């Protein structure tokens, strides 16, 4: 029997998962990434995690077809390079070569949102649909499009930045250097920012009594959902506005990408219908009826495992697509450093 | 030597072009489509046009690898079907089968904007770029994305409808049933509508003296460019507003598709920098700097020939991709009706 390994290397934690050849998650382990130690240490740790994962399941490295690793930031999957990852502090790190040296298994890297989207598209909420748009609403916003099992990349592997579409009427500064990006509103940070601004502007909210004084800075998006359920006007207004803006941005993506299904994941998706109801209404108002009629909107089903599963499955796909000559080169590049 | 035939079947005129195997246009002929005669008559005429084109160049049908036909409206290229084309009055017309019956050459159909985009991507302004977004600004607005020579289709072959993105602040009714679509502003009809509305709202324009009284309804987008050059305030305001709105809509497409180059074609593109300068400025303001740095914006170079060239080249690509079994099926379906 052959296996796959999927790695989700986040800014805070790294998860390694063992999958069977079809992408069923058999076992996973998690450790803090400790990015402050530098990329060599982080990659050493990941390699140790993979080895101990395999050892614990009594699997020889030779039984593993491929390893996939999802990294945050700008990743060049063709060159196996993390070009820039702010929250890891990585710039031009040859993650494929470095990890392959340590594992002697073919390694493939990609952006973590794309890995997540691939997992949801193939084995999660997008399963059975040909054209899957997956969007993650977390601290930031990411998205990726998978068409008939093929990832859409665009120039510089930079497609899918729905989070950095500038929304009319929005003004908040964004980490990307622009103002009013969708991410400043429909991310966890965006939702909390809106609540704080509403309170600062004199609106009163239950959240003030739940988080008195200085504690107000501890509010999370989940707290805003709780306040919504308690009928808090600020929370209701913020989640409705956020949902509407998300729906409008999704209308742009639907008109351009034409997905069959939109899979919504990430921590903010836990707001569920509080957010998705206004999003759906606005999306319906903003797209041609021919799109609306064929469109399904679903929340992610693999949740925290989507990245690990997608990483393993995308690695398998890239292994299958690679010619023997490319694989030889891939492996040779990987082994060069050890000489 | 092997040849290709490309057909651009528009609502008004149909153009048939003979190409060499690499897509160089050798000769073309044009006739009125006469859509009112019904689809059988139109397809009969197109078949006669192709035969006379080949005869005039002394080429046997057996020397033609494939015929491509671009139709307006919703086309299903896999089934060779024009599902709906309002300006031809066609619904579920099996254009591939019908034309193949008459020609005994493999025929491939697609939407005319995609054929145009493919021509510009492979042989026109997009040549040498990996990720080409082509947009046509004419009576309506169409767009298509070609990635490394592969057409992007999306669900229902409906991707690329940038013309039906609803733009904030715009209210004009659109043919699609919505309001404020980009097409209501940045098409030829949209530009003329804006000028007429400005005049109706009491603004004064040189165009009133050029087109006195009832003649005002004869204004074209080209006249608006002439008025712009004469310093007419209404024309300047309309073209600047139109350019800005186009730039904003393009920013959505850039953030999602990540093209290397945007090719702008269609009659309205003749406004050139009058439109493209404000479009470029607004696009720059609305996209992350990482996109702007790698992006080129060009006007189309094949002009009226892009559709014919693209049709021939896309037919060649689909012929090459088809398995022998598929081609057999393709041909058999095509011949079925004659029995």
From TrEMBL, chains A, B:
Task: Point out the coiled-coil segments of this chain.
Answer: none
Q: Name one Pfam family in it.
A: ROK
Listed InterPro entries: ATPase_NBD (IPR043129), ROK (IPR000600), ROK_cs (IPR049874)
What is the superkingdom listed in this entry's lineage? Bacteria
Gene3D superfamilies in the cross-refs: 3.30.420.40
The UniProt similarity line reads: Belongs to the ROK (NagC/XylR) family.
- List the PANTHER family hit by this protein, alphabetically: BIFUNCTIONAL UDP-N-ACETYLGLUCOSAMINE 2-EPIMERASE_N-ACETYLMANNOSAMINE KINASE, ROK (REPRESSOR, ORF, KINASE) FAMILY
Q: What is this protein called?
A: ROK family protein
State the organism named in the record: Thermoactinomyces daqus
């Amino acid at each position: 029997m052959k296996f796959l390994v999927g790695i989700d290397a986040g800014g805070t934690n790294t998860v390694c998962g063992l999958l069977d050849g079809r992408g069923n998650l058999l076992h996973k382990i998690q450790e803090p990434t400790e990015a402050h130690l530098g990329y060599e240490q982080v990659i050493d740790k990941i390699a140790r995690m993979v080895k101990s994962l395999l050892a614990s399941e009594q699997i020889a490295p030779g039984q593993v077809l491929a390893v996939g690793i999802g990294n945050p930031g700008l990743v060049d999957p063709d060159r196996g390079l993390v070009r820039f990852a702010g929250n890891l502090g990585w710039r031009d790190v040859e993650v494929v070569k470095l990890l392959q040296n340590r594992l002697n298994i073919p390694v493939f890297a990609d952006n973590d949102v794309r890995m997540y989207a691939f997992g949801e598209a193939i084995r999660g909420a997008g399963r059975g649909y040909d054209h899957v748009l997956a969007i993650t609403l977390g601290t930031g916003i990411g998205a990726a499009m998978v068409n008939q099992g093929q990832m859409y990349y665009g120039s510089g592997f930079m497609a899918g930045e729905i989070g950095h579409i500038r929304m009319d009427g929005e003004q908040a500064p964004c980490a990307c250097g622009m103002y009013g990006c969708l991410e400043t509103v429909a991310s966890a940070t965006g939702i909390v920012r809106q609540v704080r601004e509403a309170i600062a502007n004199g609106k009163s909210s239950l959240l003030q009594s739940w988080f008195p004084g200085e504690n107000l800075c501890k509010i999370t998006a989940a707290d805003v959902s709780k306040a919504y359920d308690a009928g808090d006007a600020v929370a209701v207004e913020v989640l409705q506005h956020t949902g509407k803006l998300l729906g409008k941005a999704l209308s742009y993506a639907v008109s351009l990408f034409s997905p069959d299904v939109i899979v919504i994941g990430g921590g903010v998706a836990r707001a569920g219908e509080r957010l998705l109801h206004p999003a759906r209404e606005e999306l319906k108002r903003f797209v041609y009826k021919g799109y609306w009629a064929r469109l399904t909107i679903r929340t992610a089903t693999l949740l925290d495992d989507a990245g690990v599963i997608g990483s393993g499955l995308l690695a398998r796909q890239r292994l299958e697509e690679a010619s023997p000559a490319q694989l030889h080169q891939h492996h040779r590049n990987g082994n060069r450093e050890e000489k």
